[in-house]
From TrEMBL, chain A:
Pfam families: Fer2. One of its GO terms (biological process) is P450-containing electron transport chain. One of its GO terms (molecular function) is electron transfer activity. Its cofactor is [2Fe-2S] cluster. This is Ferredoxin. The lineage of its organism: Bacteria, Pseudomonadati, Pseudomonadota, Alphaproteobacteria, Hyphomicrobiales. PROSITE patterns: 2FE2S_FER_2. Coiled coil: none annotated. GO terms for cellular component: cytosol. The keyword Metal-binding applies. SUPFAM superfamilies: 2Fe-2S ferredoxin-like (SSF54292). Keywords: 2Fe-2S, Iron, Iron-sulfur, Metal-binding. Belongs to the adrenodoxin/putidaredoxin family.
From TrEMBL, chain B:
This is Cytochrome. Signal peptide: none annotated. GO terms for molecular function: heme binding; iron ion binding; monooxygenase activity; oxidoreductase activity, acting on paired donors, with incorporation or reduction of molecular oxygen. It comes from the Bacteria. Pfam families: p450. Residues 1-22 are annotated as: Disordered. PROSITE patterns: CYTOCHROME_P450. Its cofactor is heme. The keyword Membrane does not apply. Keywords: Heme, Iron, Metal-binding, Monooxygenase, Oxidoreductase. The keyword Nucleus does not apply.
């Protein structure tokens, strides 16, 4: 079971247990992580599941698709080089311990 | 065409396939429109897959199966129509939609165009104006105190922002709502609602066809943005007007019924209005929850492209499957206290905007309209009281009200 560590904008750390095969967004909403809205339910259509990926993990994530790239340009919080949509991060054993920071806003 | 298609459908109303529970309910009847919830429950409880005797089609009403069908577009296709009518057997009443009624790969290309035109970035461009218009509308209604929340708010507000955002001319806009009502009635069976709507459709169709042309769309609007993508070579010059038509078909009556649903919820559940007033940042979620709770778009069909197993039953090729979005959005297997309207609920995953590749491409625009209207109400309105008879509007697909007389008091 991969775990994910979230950092809230105020620095608070929250660790959750995810299931293999689900997305980081699904794990976050299941555990009621407040900074993830996921208004489109994971369809890569809303950009309200935006996260900043810890540098150490960035290269280990699958490449971003064109939809994701375009959506991130419109994300409510500033897009950075390590911005991703958490609904597009599928969790596997090799992502155990993934560190994600939450933006200060999603809308 | 009406007489023959009626006979066709009657003839096709064959017996339920073995093992599939059958129900004698009509989701396109006045009884259903007045109160779909007991029927939704009966459908969900009968089984994961049901057979509807009246129209000779399969139905899914539980969240898991509705979600599964929505997310398997190659098996459950849209190109044979998302209404009861099967385009493989019956000519569509209007030229087929090149997005809603299309499958990949054709859908992928047209979808990308509308997704860009209605992107989060594009929303930043309209948000400020939409916010100011919502505040002005609520101020105007506060001065009147008593009014019809359907005509004067749920219709008036989207009409004050959407046609301008599209870049439409002033004249002829009175055709927009009748046209949309026609489109959403047309997804239903050949009942009186559908047949009468189509019989009276000529002037509305002519208006919409003309407004989809490039020369009738003001620069900078969503309509012109679609045409600009033809210059870029992403779509052809013939496809552009059809994509504009999709926005005119689906972009107005839906938000009218969405905002209407939210106002009706806040009027019926004053404790939720007070929570919203206490924290106006809940406005966006209060709108989203109203979409889950009322599901302004109640149903869509798919058609099977092959033999497929669903919930343990074998479904043949070329079968229509009716998805009850409204029933899925209140399925107790998925939602806690599904029948309560809760502005703080985690709404992610509801299927009021659909799910999968056809999930509403205008959802961001709908949310902007809903959020800024509810935020204005949260800041300016202290109480909403229903002051007269609430009348339902009948449509084969859209759930909403004809009339909602209310009185509001200032904060
Ligand atoms: C509260 C408001 C709205 C609701 C409840 C709603 C609901 C839906 C649903 C359920 C679908 C899925 C159809 C399917 O799976 O076959 C859909 C698709 C669509 N909607 Fe919306 N909608 C809303 C607002 C809008 C707006 C504002 C626009 C345009 C400006 C729009 C344009 C479309 C289009 C073009 C599609 C077809 C997308 C595709 O097939 O890829 N909708 N909508
Ligand atoms: S949940 Fe909507 S883009 Fe990720």
């Amino acid at each position: 079971m991969p775990s994910i560590i979230f950092f809230h904008p105020d620095g608070r750390r929250q660790q959750i247990e995810a299931s293999e095969g689900e997305s980081a967004m699904q794990a976050a909403t299941r555990h009621d992580i407040s900074g993830i809205l996921a208004e489109c339910g994971g369809n890569a259509m809303c950009a309200t599941c935006h996260v900043y990926v810890d540098e150490a993990w960035l290269a280990r994530l699958p490449a971003m698709g064109g939809d994701e790239d375009a959506l991130l340009d419109g994300a409510a919080a500033e897009r950075q080089a390590n911005s991703r949509l958490s609904c597009q991060i599928r969790l596997a054993a090799d992502l155990d311990g993934l560190v994600l920071s939450l933006p200060d806003r999603q809308t | 065409m009406s007489a023959t298609s009626r006979i066709d459908h009657a003839a096709s109303a064959q017996a339920a396939p073995a093992g599939v529970p059958n129900l004698d309910v009509d989701p396109f009847s006045t009884e259903f429109f007045e109160d779909p919830h007991p029927i939704h429950q009966a459908l969900r409880e009968a089984g994961p897959l049901v057979w509807l005797d009246k129209w000779g089609v399969y139905g899914v009403a539980r969240y898991a199966e509705v979600h599964a069908v929505l997310n398997d577009p190659l098996t459950f296709c849209s190109s044979r129509g998302v209404g009861l009518s099967d385009f493989a057997k019956e000519k569509p009443w209007r030229p087929q939609s090149i997005i809603l009624e299309a499958d990949p790969p054709a859908h992928t290309r047209t979808r990308a165009v509308l997704a860009q035109v209605l992107s989060p970035t594009a929303m930043k461009g309209v948000r400020e104006h939409f916010t100011a218009m919502a505040a002005a509308k609520v101020d105007e209604l506060l001065a009147r105190r008593s009014f019809d929340a359907v005509a004067d708010l749920a219709e008036a507000y989207p009409l004050s922002v959407f046609p301008d955002a599209m870049g439409l001319k002033q004249e002829g806009r009175e055709n927009l709502l009748p046209y949309a009502s026609l489109v959403f009635n047309s997804f239903g069976p050949p009942n009186q609602l559908r047949q009468e709507a189509i019989e009276r459709s000529a002037p509305h169709q002519a208006y919409v066809a003309a407004q989809c042309q490039r020369e009738n769309l003001a620069p900078g609007g969503f309509g012109a943005c679609v045409h600009a993508r033809a210059d870029a070579g992403d779509i052809t010059a013939e496809e552009a007007p059809l994509l504009v038509r999709s926005l005119l078909s689906a972009g107005l009556d839906t938000t009218v019924n969405g905002i209407g649903a939210a106002i009706y919820c806040l009027a019926r559940f004053p404790d939720q209005l007070q929570r919203l007033r206490g924290d106006p940042t809940l406005a966006r979620n209060a709108f989203e929850e109203a979409i889950r709770y009322e599901s302004p778009v109640q149903t869509f069909f798919r058609t099977t492209t092959r033999e497929v197993e669903l919930a343990g039953h074998r479904i043949g090729e070329g079968e229509k499957v009716l998805m009850f979005l409204g029933a899925a959005n209140r399925d107790p297997r998925r939602w806690e206290n599904p029948d309560s309207y809760d502005v703080t609920r985690r709404t992610s995953g509801h299927v009021g905007f659909g799910s999968g590749i056809h999930m509403c491409v205008g959802q961001l625009l709908a949310r902007v309209e809903g959020e800024v209207m509810l935020a204005a109400i949260a800041r300016k309105v202290a109480a909403i009281e229903i002051t007269g008879p609430v009348k339902r509007r009948y449509n084969n697909t859209l759930r909403g009200l004809e009339s909602l007389p209310i009185t509001i008091s200032p904060a």
